[in-house]
Amino acid sequence: MRKFAKAKPQREPTIALINIVFLMLVFFMVAGTLAQPLDPSLTLVETRELDGQAPPNALVVYPDGRISFEGEDQADAATFVASLSEEDRETVRIVPDRTLPAAALVSLTRDLRSAGAQRVMLVTKRALE
C-alpha cells in the first residue's frame, strides 16, 4: 500500500498586502494635509484697511538703518539698551522694515546682544494664503 502525502494548503499572501496598504496609508498621511479645512461659512477678519502700528515696547528699524522707540529716534543700539530697565533687557523686540538689508538687521541684532539684550525677537507679519 502506498500512502499519499497530503498536499499543504497554499496560504494567501495577506501579510504582504496588509504591509503595502499600511505603507500607502502612511504615505498619504505624510503627503497630504491632516488639518481640517476651514468651514466655508466662516468669514475671516480682514486687516487691509488698518494702519500698521508697531507693537508697544518694540524697536522700529527703518530701511535706511535709522531706529526709533515709541516714536523717538535712538542714537544707536548701545544707547537704546542702556536706557532700558533690567526687565526690559530680557527681551528686545525689533520691527524691521521689509526693505531693510539683511546685513543691517544682523548687525543691529549683534549690537543689541553685545549691549546687554538677553534675547532679540523679530516681529513680522503673518498672513493666511
UniProtKB/TrEMBL annotation:
A Pfam family the protein falls into: ExbD
Membrane protein topology class: Single-pass membrane protein; Single-pass type II membrane protein
UniProt GO BP: protein transport
Recorded superkingdom: Bacteria
GO CC terms in record: plasma membrane
Keywords on record: Cell membrane, Membrane, Protein transport, Transmembrane, Transmembrane helix, Transport
Coiled-coil intervals, chain numbering: none
Keyword Acetylation part of the UniProt annotation: no
Compartmental location: Cell membrane
Membership in a protein family: Belongs to the ExbD/TolR family.
Protein name as it appears in the record: Biopolymer transport protein ExbD
Originating species: Sulfitobacter marinus
Organism lineage string: Bacteria, Pseudomonadati, Pseudomonadota, Alphaproteobacteria, Rhodobacterales
